[in-house]
């Protein structure tokens, strides 16, 4: 996975975890329906065809996740736009995917 894609994945994960730690309803939604949680957080589900596993870590456990290699041609346009530097993650979160898309040339 490219450094840019890793950064985007880490930012999205960080925001999901941050919200789940402060919002019990969101945490429950993330565990039961992760795609709906992404939609709620980002305004779009950037990976609708991907299976999302959410692991609720227990006291005394440490889970280490080794991300799969993902080819850029497997990713949806919204996520590629975000990763390509055309949109900052902050703008994506604040204004949604429709308002931060690159203008047509």
Written account of the structure:
The chain has one domain (3-99). 53% of the residues lie in helices and 0% in strands. It contains five helices and no strands. It has helices spanning 3-22, 24-32, 34-42, 77-83, 89-99. α1 (3-22) crosses α2 (24-32), α1 (3-22) crosses α4 (77-83) and α2 crosses α3 (34-42). The longest helix is centred in the first third of the chain and has 20 residues, at 3-22. The protein starts with a helix and ends in a 6-residue tail after the last helix.
Number of domains: 1
N-to-C order of helices and strands:
HHHHH
Gross geometry:
globular
| Portion in helices | 40-55%
Discrete helix count: 5
Strand content: under 5%
Please give the number of β-strands.
0
End-to-end distance? 29 Å
Major sheet size, sense and barrel closure? none
Global Rg: 14 Å
* Helix-and-strand structural type: mainly alpha
Poorly predicted segments:
99-105
Summarize the structure.
It contains 5 helices and no strands. The chain is mainly α.
Tell me the layout of helices and strands.
Blueprint: H1 3-22, H2 24-32, H3 34-42, H4 77-83, H5 89-99
Helix pairs in contact: 1-2, 1-4, 2-3
């Amino acid at each position: 996975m490219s450094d840019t894609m890793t950064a985007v994945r880490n930012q999205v994960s960080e925001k999901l975890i941050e919200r789940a730690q402060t919002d019990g309803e969101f945490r429950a939604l993330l565990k039961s329906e992760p795609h709906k949680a992404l939609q709620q957080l980002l305004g779009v589900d950037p990976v609708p065809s991907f299976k999302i596993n959410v692991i609720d870590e227990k006291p005394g456990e440490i889970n280490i996740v080794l991300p799969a290699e993902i080819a850029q041609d497997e990713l949806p346009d919204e996520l590629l736009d975000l990763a390509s530097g055309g949109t900052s993650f902050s703008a994506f979160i604040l204004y949604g995917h429709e308002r931060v898309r690159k203008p047509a040339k």
